[in-house]
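Researcher: Structure prediction, please.
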Amino acid sequence: MDKIAELADRYPHLTFGNLRFGIECGDGWADIVDAFLATAEKVSAAGGGTLHLLQIKEKMGGLRIYYRMAEPPQRTWMGIDEAYYLAEARSFHVCEHCGRRGLLTYNGLLYATRCAEHAAELESEPVSPGPAITIIVDNAVVAYDPGADRFMLTRVD
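Model: Predicted structure follows.
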């Protein structure tokens, strides 16, 4: 959580002070959150509006980022939503603990996205076939393909 909390310094134009419930996910997703915030800052600066972060957390094995904007232009809102859905999709393929490539796993009690090493620590097994994730690209809903995502190509197994 420390790496994600440090992102507030990198994005001073985004409001982190309103994180009502805080940050409740592992640092393995810091790069995903960073990419989301970079896009949100760029879109907000170009289109107007300020993003207010409410909570960043893990839920059912995936990243959730709760936010609001006060009356943003539709283009700004849509750009931030696209970035959010992409961040959520990526989180199902990146270990929340270490940031390596991962899979959604389940141990009978909880879902978690983990690499093989950290899945073994939880005594969890991959969920097969895994979630079917869709994202929004240019106002169209499409299936997320981690093999076509340049961000995912930087992840090690």
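Model: The mean pLDDT is 89.
Researcher: Thanks, that helps.
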